[in-house]
Design a protein that fits this description.
about 80 residues, mainly alpha, Arc Repressor Mutant, subunit A, 3 helices, about 0% strand, globular
Length: about 80
């Protein structure tokens, strides 16, 4: 799949934010505390913290669930073609 140009549902342009998202996600995952798994969320805590990807999408202005879904589920296969 190529980098999606727009959100499939609402039409918001997302392609110009893709590289920043991937770069920041990798940087923050590498800098994260190695004792904790960033994918495990403690739902019993009084305040549920956002995941690393959620924080980056908030920075980029992706507040709709449709845009978040596209960013989280798109797999770039252009390098394999």
């Amino acid at each position: 799949m190529l980098i999606p140009i727009r959100c499939y549902t609402c039409g918001k342009i997302i392609a110009d934010k893709w590289e920043y998202y991937e770069r920041e996600l990798l940087r923050k995952k590498l800098a994260f505390n190695k004792d904790e798994d960033p994918l495990i969320i403690n739902v019993n805590a009084s305040e549920i913290k956002k995941t690393i990807a959620g924080e980056i999408m908030d920075e980029l202005g992706f507040h709709r669930i449709c845009c978040r879904k596209v960013m989280l589920t798109s797999i770039i296969l252009i390098d394999d073609i």
